[in-house]
Amino acid sequence: MSRAPAAPRRLGHTILGVVIIAVMLFPLYWMLNVSLQPAGNAAATPWLPFEFSLRGYQTALAEQGGNLVTSLVVSLGAVLLTLLIAAPAAYALAHFRFGKWVVVFLFGVLTTQMVPGIVVANALYSAYSDLGLLNTYPGLILADSAAGIPFSIILMRAFMMGIPPSIVEAAYVDGAGPVRAFVSVVLPISRNALITSALFTFLFAWGDFLFALTLTTSETMRPITLGLYSYIGGFVNDWSPIMATAVLSSLPAIALLIVAQRYVAAGVTGGSVKS
Q1: Cβ–Cβ under 8 Å, residues 176 and 184
Q2: What is the pTM of this model?
């Protein structure tokens, strides 16, 4: 008898969840709806795109296609550089004995996450100007990696601390050196943490606006976030291309989240359980 109200309660929770999800997804739907309209007036857009047009996407690809490629190159470069630095660092902090220096290093890593981004961007601008890295792919990749490396080190170290030392020692017995054991044993086991770190680094680099605004001054080197920002000022009366650009810029992030969601769940929680 006491369990009878459970079903209505679950139904109420389900309805509440559906309402919350609908509210959160409505901006995405409206963005897609406006992007398919033949006219560009967002205020007069009907609720359903009965008469839709791909004119906005044609304009967006023609005028923002290069910016999409720039963001893709920068984001993938940031992911590669972040993993190359963060994975060995996390393994060293997890399995090599550095005593109290590990705590000091991790505190320093956490401290870098507390520095306001505008401070870092202004400092990088002066350094990049002297080094000739303004308006370059390496410059933006280094800047975005600087934000992704600390997070990746902390995440992967927590995961790698759960790897039993006996597995690595068995590789040593089989004749593998430290580098081979790391590449052939540790990295495959840490796949979930690597994918999670790569995903978050990609999302940060893809959505970065501050570094893009500060470290690029040329129209030929412009990520999609900065291109969309300048696009709004130039075509504010025609919202179809703007929303089409926003939809196109959202597709890589949505696709990666869908593909990697199970790896992300395992990578985030993996460090909390030790084998």
Answers
A1: yes
A2: 0.83
Average pLDDT in the 10-32 region?
87
Count the neighbouring beta carbons within 10 Å of the beta carbon of residue 28. Answer: 13
Please report the DSSP string for 42-92 in residue order. STT--SS-SS--SHHHHHHHHHHHHHHHHHHHHHHHHHHHHHHHHHHHHHH
What's the token pair of residue 78? 């940031």
Give dist(CA 128, CA 126) in Å, integer.
6
Residue 61 has pLDDT above 80, yes or no: yes
- Report pLDDT digits (tens) over 166-202: 888 888 888 878 888 888 888 888 888 899 899 999 9
- Judged by DSSP in three states, 123 sits in helix
Nearest 5°: phi and psi at 165? Answer: -60, -25
Rounded to whole angstroms, how far apart are CA atoms 94 and 146? Answer: 21
Q: At what angle do helices 55-95 and 137-160 cross, to 10 degrees?
A: 50
Q: Mean pLDDT in the chain?
A: 83
Tokens of 270: 């993996």
C-alpha dihedral over 245, 251, 252, 256, to 10 degrees? Answer: 160
